[in-house]
Amino acid sequence: MEKIVVYDTTLRDGTQGEGISLSVQDKINIAKKLDSLGVDFIEGGWPGSNPKDMDFFKEVQGVSFNHAKITAFGSTRRAGIEAKDDVNLNAFVASGVSYVTIFGKSWDFHVKSALKVSLEENLDMIKSSILYLKSKGIKVFYDAEHFFDGLKNNRDYALLTVKTAAEAGAEALILCDTNGGTLPDEIKDGVVAVIEHTGLDVGIHAHNDSDLAVANSILAVQAGACHVQGTMNGLGERCGNANLCSIIPNLQLKMGYDCLAGDGLKHLTEAARFVSETANLALGNNQAFVGHSAFAHKAGIHVNAVLKDPRTYEHIDPSTVGNVRRVLVSELSGASNLQYKIKELGLDFPDDKNAQQVFIKKIKELEYQGYQFEGAEGSFELLLKKESGVFDSGFRLESFHVSANKRGGQPVVSEASIKISVGEDSYHTAADGNGPVDALDNAIRKALETFYPKLKEMHLVDYKVRVLDGKDATSAKVRVLIESTDGDSSWTTIGVSTDIIEASWYALTDSISYKLMKDAGTKV
User: Fold this and answer.
1) Gap between the Cα atoms of 321 and 350, Å rounded
2) Model confidence, pTM
């Protein structure tokens, strides 16, 4: 099995994406996760470019890694000075890393217009920088910036730049599609040309501006590249970088290459979601391989076939990348969807086709009203239990009242009062909050925690409101989705009404009932 070097640049190139900012500790945590995943190299940043990266390279020296090597990134020496006097090159040496990646110009247009130096000086900047770093015991990957644009504009010079880097002692030549505009046939041409011209290991660093970064990276490997650079979830500037979460499983599962150490592939989904959470970004549900919906089935015909053999509608076994198969229940559902969910949830639902068809009809009616159970499986499970006759909400609402008051320039003050019953006992209390829904949530908890102290373990993770009938303006029906967790697991519940408070009430009480059901509703 041929080895492909996996080089992750999430901590450097990934952080150049809009809205992404990682602390030093965030970067160290992600580096540890990537090491456990089994990548070969982790690019930590550009030493000397900013205090955060300087701190990272200082702190990471005290961290033990089982497999990955930390690398630094930066440019060749500046024009007009010797390599030994260049601040950036000496920052590499001070960073303590054993590998660095330096980029230089391959496109003669950039040499003349951006660097404003002669073509000969650019070649010496590449050569002298690599020689200097090697004299300090550092191994060098050479990133040929804008290589494919340079190849189209002045083929001979672009090839001369990488040959110069090879002769100076670079470990590998990384061909960069910096502007992300190169087509697959051009990638193949460039990789083959460099291998023939230098005989050195070749890598690919693709950007996604034409939505081809993954395809271009895979084609580069097919053309002979043995080193692939990219980021987790495709994070990066503009349209992002090549997505390692797609490249790795395609290469390893479908093409037989060895990419990740050990059983790292089985932890790919976990790592993708960890990076997304740490960067405070939502992982796309429809992201290939690792997305929440990557192996989700909704159409009844599809589910029926998947129950017989998952290969009918799945290109791989989701467990190979650490993901799971999901069957959704909606207005498109058939009996197969329901039977799968009953089995998945371990519910005792009547094995009666007529009863199941009645339940499916009810689901379709509720979804017509605005419910969407594929995104609220907590409420769906409760609904199944209600239909099975085994549901106990754990409490009963007597009444609630919510008010919001504003005086002059003072902030709005929201308050909720509530009266509930649990068995023969009743409780009447009030609470305030940041808005009426928060006040209502606080009041419910205040009342119920008297009877169910374990509710203190639970808290809201997310609260979403969707207007369903925009043409109806302020009288429109709304859908409220609430995600809750108790630290052990999380669940999502739903409420629909023309009144946002009532819709929130339905979602909140379903969330609490789910927690009580989960804890078997035991009074403490």
Assistant:
1) 35
2) 0.74
At 20, is the secondary structure helix, strand, or coil? coil
Contact 271, 278 (CB under 8 A): no
pLDDT tens digit sequence for 301-325: 776 777 778 888 889 999 999 998 8
Per-residue pLDDT tens over the stretch 138-165: 999 999 999 999 999 999 999 999 999 9
Same domain, 341 and 450: no
- CATH number of the structural domain spanning residue 441: 3.30.160.270
In percent, the amount of the chain with pLDDT more than 70 equals 90
Q: Which residues contact 67 (CB under 8 A, 6 or more apart)?
A: 35, 38, 39, 40, 261
Within-domain flag for 380: no
CA-CA-CA-CA torsion sign (248, 249, 254, 259): positive
CB neighbours of residue 357 within 10 Å: 13
Helix and strand numbers, DSSP H then E, in the chain: 17, 16
Say if CB 110 and CB 146 are below 8 A apart: yes
Residue 40 region by backbone torsions, left for phi larger than 0, else alpha for psi between -120 and 50, else beta? alpha
Same domain, 351 and 405: no
Residue 206: inside a domain: yes
Same-domain pairing of 263 and 330: no
Q: Quick check: is 381 in a domain?
A: no
415 with 338, same domain: the answer is: no
Q: Are residues 365 and 493 in the same domain?
A: no
Residues 413 and 345 in one domain: no
Do 355 and 465 lie in one domain? The reply is no
Q: What share of the chain is helix, strand, coil (3-state, %, to 5)?
A: 45, 20, 35
User: What confidence tier does 524 reach under pLDDT thresholds 50, 70, 90?
Assistant: very low
Pair 35, 136 in one domain: yes
Instruction: Count how many domains the chain has.
Output: 3
In which residue are the tokens 């009062």 written?
Answer: 417
Condensed to tens digits (0 to 9), the pLDDT of residues 235-288 reads 999 999 999 999 999 999 999 999 998 899 999 999 998 999 889 888 888 999
Domain of residue 239, residue span: 5-278
Q: Using alpha carbons, select from 1, 3, 20, 5 the residue that is nearest to residue 277.
A: 20
